[in-house]
């Protein structure tokens, strides 16, 4: 049985709380947060506390707060012997000022109120001792079948890759939606295409899956598209991404 | 029973052939194509022909060829009384020179060898007569529960929206993959994130689902990311998309 304290009350903290609570080999003994209002949600799952001096003794302390607050929160844990791990993709392990440091980074986008199956979420671990790593591995493997050792530099790059694959992708969905709305077309018409686009990469590489006018070097279609766009930002994005795709594939045409 | 001839032997023609063949109310009577080799695949499903004069009489002729070839292929059908419809998002209805013209545009990305469930694929119809439209509606509804009337201008815009939601999105997946490979990280780590990103928009709007440094106006993280990118094209894409997201959301910060 691994005992865990979660520090933080946001989206990820909520998802971890729910998952730990239903995992037999994990005992979520406490959630710490400064905001009493936010803590209320957690009190149906476990004990809550808002004073650093009341933080309980545990095998693992998971810091699930915003990147800027990690260092400060870790100061409350200087006297703890358990493994102190943050959950951030972009933050180095050494901002933590604890005896036993680690990183426990679940690579996923978490939405309030939308449950996720942790079993398929990659959890990226880093640690500076074999012993701490063993504890984090036990914790991660209890909730996920995809546990990876990823160092600080790799994790930074992975976080960057995730910005392209998630943040920017979602923004493109938004442009698709805006085009639909302007033309009185339901955005629902695009949704099956969006689903299939993401499904494709389970069986093809993105390179193999690439289609469209830029892929074919079809200048006529690209110019037609550009003439349909009135928003300057959308036009710039269309131009830049088309140019990038064209450049990548033109050797093969 | 609706009788159909497919003209074309590509990806979409194959998927339509498979779907029509297993639909009781549709009789796929022939597939026409110039390339004998490509026709062979179809001969296990129906009759094939490669001479325009041999094209059979049918209720509907579906032209599933590349955009540039639509007009030429439609010339073979001048004497036909059935509805002649193309399947292209970017092509106006009036390139067709047939008596009864129409458009039958399935909005999806089709991959060779990867079967799709047509029932969930939106089919966008256009026609210039009530009678032709009725025939196309019967055909579309026999294979899909999502049949929409979309005119030429709307369809052009929808096709443009699809470029953002599919072609450009897939290219961003490719950048994510490239970043992983360069840093000796398996691209599999990003796949659950990619899946969840597309799943999110079934319950949230893209605007609600937007997260990340640009969404938060977090300049420090954005600069850190930029310092990690050495490829000039990726850097330009990062800058432009971050700027667009920041501009869209900064009023709300």
TrEMBL record, chains A, B:
- Give a single Pfam family match: F420_oxidored
Q: Where is this region: Disordered?
A: 201-223
Know the name of this protein? Answer: DUF2520 domain-containing protein
Q: Which SUPFAM superfamilies match?
A: 6-phosphogluconate dehydrogenase C-terminal domain-like (SSF48179), NAD(P)-binding Rossmann-fold domains (SSF51735)
**Ranges for the DUF2520 domain?**
121-245
Record organism:
Flagellimonas algicola
Cross-referenced PANTHER family, in alphabetical order?
CONSERVED HYPOTHETICAL ALANINE AND LEUCINE RICH PROTEIN
Pyrroline-5-carboxylate reductase catalytic N-terminal domain span:
4-77
Organism phylogeny: Bacteria, Pseudomonadati, Bacteroidota, Flavobacteriia, Flavobacteriales
InterPro entries xref list: 6-PGluconate_DH-like_C_sf, DUF2520, NAD(P)-bd_dom_sf, P5C_Rdtase_cat_N, TM1727-like_C_sf
Lineage, top-rank taxon, reads Bacteria
